[in-house]
Every structure is written in C-alpha cells, then in structure tokens.
Amino acid sequence: MSTTIGEQRARQGATLTDHRCRICGGELHEVFDLGRQPVSNAFAKPEDADKVPFFRLAVGACTSCTMVQQLDTVPPYEMYRADYPYRASGSLLIRRHFEDVARHIIETCPGGRDGFVVEIGSNDGVMLKTLSEAGMRHLGVDPAASAGEVARSHGVNVRTDFFNAETAADIYSEHGHANLIFSANTFSHISYLDSIFEGVGTLLAPDGLFVFEDRSLADILRHNYFDQIYDEHIYLFSVSSVQAMAAHFGFELVDAEHLPLHGGSIRYTVARRGALEPSPAVEKFVAQEKADGLAEKEEAAFVRFSSDVNRIKTDLVSLLHDIRSEGRRVVGYGATSRSATVLNYCGIGADLLPLVCDSTPEKQGRVTPGSKIPVCPPDAFTDPYPDYALLFAWNHAEEIMAKERLFQEKGGRWILYVPEVHTI
Length: 424
Description:
CATH architecture of the largest domain: 3-Layer(aba) Sandwich
Largest sheet: 7 strands, mixed
GO biological process, one term: methylation
InterPro entries: Methyltransf_Zn-bd_dom_put, Methyltransf_Zn-bd_dom_put_sf, MeTrfase_14, SAM-dependent_MTases_sf
Strand order of the largest sheet: 6-5-4-7-8-11-10
Number of strands: 17
Distance between the termini: 47 Å
Pfam family, one: Methyltransf_14
Keywords: Methyltransferase, Transferase
CATH topology of the largest domain: Rossmann fold
Number of domains: 2
CATH class of the largest domain: Alpha Beta
Oligomer: single chain
Strand content: 15-25%
Protein name: SAM-dependent methyltransferase
C-alpha cells in the first residue's frame, strides 16, 4: 500500500509537531486529558494482552481555527490492521441508516445515476452495497483487508489502501473524476487531512461534492459522551472548525445537517470554493456554537465537561463495587471501541466486570484492551442472565433493549453512564 509523508513519519514514531494544529499550524491549548489509554480496537488473545500499545489520550483546541484534536496520535498501522474487527453491518440501525444514505446519493448525486461515487473508509460495504445493487459506479477505499473481503462478497468494489493524495491520483487515472466522495465516521480518524484534501481536489469533479458524517462536538460536550474520545477519533468536529478547515484547503462548507446517529452527528457537505451558494443552515450552526462557547478556545465548556466526567467515573466505580458487595452479578454488553476509554479511565477490570458479551466473532475469545476483561459470545449473557448489564453500546440502546427484552422481564437492569450514571 502507498503511504504519505505523514504516514511515514507516524511509522517512525512521530507525534503531533510540538502541539501545533494539524490543520492551520496554530497553537493548541490542552482542554482535557483521559490519561494513558490502549489502542481501542486491539482485542488481543489473552497471551498477547500485555503487548497492546498505550498512548496519552489528551485533546487540545486550536486558538486559531478552533479545531479540537488529540495532542498525540497512534500510528495508523497500529489502529487499522488487516484484522480490524469493527463491522458496520453488525447493527440494524447502522444498516438502515446507510441504506437511506445510499438511496439519497442515488437520487441526488451530481452526474445522476451515471455518476461515480468513492467512499473513504468503506468498511464491510454496508453503504456501497446498495449502490452496487443499483448498478451505480463506485469504489470503496479502506485499509482493513478483512473488512474489504466482506464488502467484495457483497459485490462491492474495494481498494485495500489508505486514501490520500497518491491513491486519489491513481483512482483518477483509472476511473476519472468522482462526482461524489463520501465518508462516514472515518474522516476524523485521519491525522494527515492535508493529503486527504489534496486527494479530494485531484479526484473530485468540478461540480462534485465531498460529503462526510461525523460525531458532533456540541453533542459530546452537552451529553458527557467522554467515551467518544479514543485513539481513532483524532478530531472532534464542530461546524465552525470544519468551515475553517474547508476554507484553509481551498474548499467551502456549503451545508450542515444534524443527525441522531451515535448520540448526535453532523453531515457536512463541502464543494469547491464558489461552486455552490452555502445553505443558511451553516451560519445557523456557527451562531449557535458561538452562543454555546464552542467557537472560541472551548475552555469553559471543557471545564464543565471534565467535572461531569470525573463524577461519572466516581459514581460508576462506586456502583460496581456495591453490586459486587451485594453478591449480585454484572457483565458488560458490547465490546465497543468506546469501552476501552471507559474501562481504562475508570480503572475497571475483571474484578468488577468479569466479562463483556459481544456478537462480533472476531472479538470473542479475546480480552478488552488494557483492562484485559474476557470477551464472550452472546450466550454468556443469556445463560444465565446477570442481575445488571453495563451497556457500552449506548448509542444502540433502543435496538439492544428491544432485542434483550427478556433480560428486563426477568428482573435485569441496564447500567448506563451517560449523561450520568443511572440504571434502567
């Protein structure tokens, strides 16, 4: 696979660049620190658990463009290995969302149904599968080989690679311009956004659109979603910072739409500068972020956030200790990437949470990163049911609780920790 200069530096162990903003080079002001954290998707075999790499997970806000970002980063090859275990199709909610996204693309793509769509971070092809079935030209770009094989089995065209300026040039030489470039919950995972935008500039048609979805900083701070901060989420986007980022790289943010997915996300639409009149929605978002204090240094908002997160840590650990002292049984539900942040920040190990149940075969028989809690298949949850279940996959709570209705009918209670610790 090809690599950018940024990726090559990462392989050599390089970190941020003296805590300067990766986008504009401005000064980064540290606003939150979650301490030492493991690579979030490094679900290792028990005998390899001590080999999982750790890093400092702290975030800062740029005093110039307001972009919130991690101060240090994990090299991409550590996070996105060939055996990367996440599968987007594992959730009915996610599948339905991306089916809707695909249908919207088919109806609105510049170039119509004859247009060419490229997805950055296509995972198991959950979105592109619908385009493929509709006969629309497409290509997914994703470095995880195993996920790509799943996508190919569904008829999706995939290039196993990192998207960057070099790969974009290769794609353009083979396929021509892309009418739409799409990315969901991936763009914020990439440290070298200069190379991404250079690639978008090469590949995108003059009237094309770059559309990406990602978690909303405003929602993260408002609802105390501290577990949305983990190694893969290098950037925490706001509309203000994305507007500044697009302008810095010669593009323009022309639309923004709030989505309920993942507790609150924003769909951003970027075009070449001057190609489209920006929607009034963009300035409405920016005005609200200024009113909320999210377009400055973020400091006041993060002071409140930090206090709330510390309280969550204390309350959650206290609750688990009480459950254990009462002789009751509790298990984790959903070995998510986010669970690594919760377990390691709160210091929760197998003494307080003996196992985590998960339906992903690639995670079963392994242990959670850092905390080394066994990951078990779903039958460990049902036979017998525990007294409590700590729900890490809270963004799928409605779907999961409907599926596990019998658990509650038999007296089981769910533990959730955002926006505060509570049971259901």
